[in-house]
């Protein structure tokens, strides 16, 4: 991927984060008037602040995404066989569903939410992985599921600490998940365009 396409992915991911943060934030504020600054009467100001937070979430999501790509590259060079790395990612994802759910369950009073959260995130992650596998190849299913569930949970971990605030947790996880889904579903398109451009350039006759 060249610098131009990386920059395109960077700012569009931040834009996606801003838009999704505003939408999810306003829904949270509508269902929970205490969510946000100064209540419902300052919805316009709150939307601006949510957009700013969404830009940061988009940038944070991209940091996690490229960290995963780096980890994936290193792991493949270590394991040599891609199926071994995929098996480890699949095992880690399954373990994280129960492990993180149990850890959050023990620390919170309204513990039902922290069992529902990993399950809903897992279902959505499998849906994104299915789309990715259909658009590329079946072997992309497990890595995508790992990215969408485990990496998203790691990125959202700061929001899961401290006092229980369901609205704040949802406000953090939804934009992160959407940004990660956007990046993983755009990656092969950008790489394919880059390959097509390089092929067309190499095929151009020399004057």
UniProtKB/TrEMBL annotation:
<feature type="transmembrane region" description="Helical">
    <location>
        <begin position="47"/>
        <end position="71"/>
    </location>
</feature>
<dbReference type="Pfam" id="PF14089">
    <property type="entry name" value="KbaA"/>
</dbReference>
<feature type="transmembrane region" description="Helical">
    <location>
        <begin position="111"/>
        <end position="131"/>
    </location>
</feature>
<keyword id="KW-1133">Transmembrane helix</keyword>
<protein>
    <submittedName>
        <fullName>KinB-signaling pathway activation protein</fullName>
    </submittedName>
</protein>
<keyword id="KW-0472">Membrane</keyword>
<keyword id="KW-0812">Transmembrane</keyword>
<feature type="transmembrane region" description="Helical">
    <location>
        <begin position="166"/>
        <end position="185"/>
    </location>
</feature>
<dbReference type="InterPro" id="IPR024164">
    <property type="entry name" value="KinB-signalling_activ"/>
</dbReference>
<feature type="transmembrane region" description="Helical">
    <location>
        <begin position="140"/>
        <end position="160"/>
    </location>
</feature>
<feature type="transmembrane region" description="Helical">
    <location>
        <begin position="83"/>
        <end position="105"/>
    </location>
</feature>
<feature type="transmembrane region" description="Helical">
    <location>
        <begin position="7"/>
        <end position="27"/>
    </location>
</feature>
